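User: tokens in, sequence out, please.
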């Protein structure tokens, strides 16, 4: 077989093998994008997921002989056993395909055209993800303001991830800054002329995100690593020239992207489609984040932090929080969390357990002006009788310290 294009330079053997592997691997990892971003075509994502939901548990049970079957699939974690085994499947499939491809196509000297199309695919995928993550921070839906229950948890009892979420959510300004950086990287990637700049910007942003995930045990390590790797791959062709310019201070020119078609009108149409796709992604991502922020869960009529006075149970504070959460802190500092529904008219509170919605209890309440509350009823097998007093939230510095241009002394508490 001859080269795809007579003018295309000959690739080294190692480069051809690396391209074959990377092409197959990222195609498996990113699929079925972009169909998942197109209205009425997202059903394909369920088909692809259904396929891997069969393959991955089978591999885990019959080839890896894991002690427990895989029953947890997509949830808030991206580092589940399923995710790790799936990535292993991608690696094996890409390796085997690379060997077969290398044998059958050993006479080919380059993959110039396929490289350009795969680079377009990777660029659009990475750009769309960066815009999505950025929009969720600019609108502050990924890291919402700290919940009331997180304010009373002893500092040392926060998980590393919980500490990071509180740190991010406590500053809307930093959310906007971090989200803008991610969105800028995504937008640059979606515009062909700015691919290298976008890839470098994305690599810088994702290096920080990846280290945060690794340092604070956020279960998005695999995904953030792939985003960083994708950015480095896109910037790869210009590494040598960038090194010449920045390190050796020699004149250098970045690699020039060759057109996809010989017809200028087709290339122009392709550019317009990419820009429209970019505008569509940015618009839908911002709108989706705005909708998530604009529709918070209904708050309980008892929303707030309540300090426990007289009670027949070892309670110190009770929090009626957002998302129907009831948090109970014992006098030893231990936190227990439940789901609750408050009926203000009937003055009743229905409580259920996170893990078992059929277990829990029911309480009745009376509010005693100005800031008192009396509870009685049952929680599990225990009878509850307690008198509570509303806590003034302004005492929490994290919520009300604010920003100061002038600080005569460091206010480090």
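Assistant: Sequence out:
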């Amino acid at each position: 077989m001859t080269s795809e294009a007579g003018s295309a330079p000959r690739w080294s053997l190692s480069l051809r093998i690396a391209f074959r592997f990377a092409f197959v691997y990222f195609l498996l990892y990113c699929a079925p994008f972009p169909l998942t971003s197109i209205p009425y075509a997202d059903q394909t994502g369920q088909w692809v997921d259904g396929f891997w939901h069969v393959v991955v548990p089978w591999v885990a049970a019959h080839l890896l002989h894991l002690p427990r079957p895989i029953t947890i699939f997509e949830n808030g974690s991206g580092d589940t056993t399923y995710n790790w085994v799936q990535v292993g499947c991608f690696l094996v499939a890409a390796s085997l395909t690379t060997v077969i491809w290398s044998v059958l196509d050993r006479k080919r000297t380059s993959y110039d055209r396929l490289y350009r199309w795969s680079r377009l695919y990777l660029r659009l995928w990475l750009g769309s993800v960066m815009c999505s993550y950025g929009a969720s921070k600019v609108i502050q839906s990924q890291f919402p303001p700290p919940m009331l229950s997180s304010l009373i948890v002893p500092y040392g009892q926060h998980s590393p991830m919980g500490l990071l979420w509180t740190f991010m959510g406590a500053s809307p300004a930093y959310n906007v800054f971090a989200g803008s950086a991610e969105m800028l990287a995504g937008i640059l990637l979606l515009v062909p002329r700015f691919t290298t700049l976008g890839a470098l910007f994305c690599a810088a942003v994702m290096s920080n995100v990846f280290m945060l995930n690794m340092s604070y045990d956020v279960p998005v390590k695999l995904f953030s690593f792939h985003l960083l790797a994708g950015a480095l791959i896109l910037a790869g062709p210009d590494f040598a020239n960038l090194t010449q310019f920045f390190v050796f201070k020699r004149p250098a020119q970045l690699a020039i992207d060759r057109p996809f078609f010989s017809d200028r009108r087709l290339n122009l149409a392709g550019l317009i489609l990419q820009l429209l796709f970019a505008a569509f992604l940015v618009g839908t991502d911002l709108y989706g984040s705005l909708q998530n922020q604009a529709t918070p869960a209904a708050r309980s009529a008892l929303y707030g932090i309540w300090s426990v006075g007289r009670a027949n149970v070892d309670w110190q504070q009770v929090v009626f929080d957002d998302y129907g959460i009831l948090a109970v802190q014992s006098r030893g500092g231990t936190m227990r969390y439940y789901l609750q529904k408050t009926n203000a008219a009937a003055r009743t509170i229905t409580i259920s357990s996170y893990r078992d919605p059929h277990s829990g209890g029911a309480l009745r309440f009376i509010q005693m002006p100005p800031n008192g509350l009396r509870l009685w009823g049952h929680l599990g097998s225990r009878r509850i009788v307690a008198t509570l007093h509303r806590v003034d939230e302004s005492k929490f510095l994290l919520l009300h310290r604010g920003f100061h241009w002038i600080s005569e002394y460091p206010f480090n508490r």
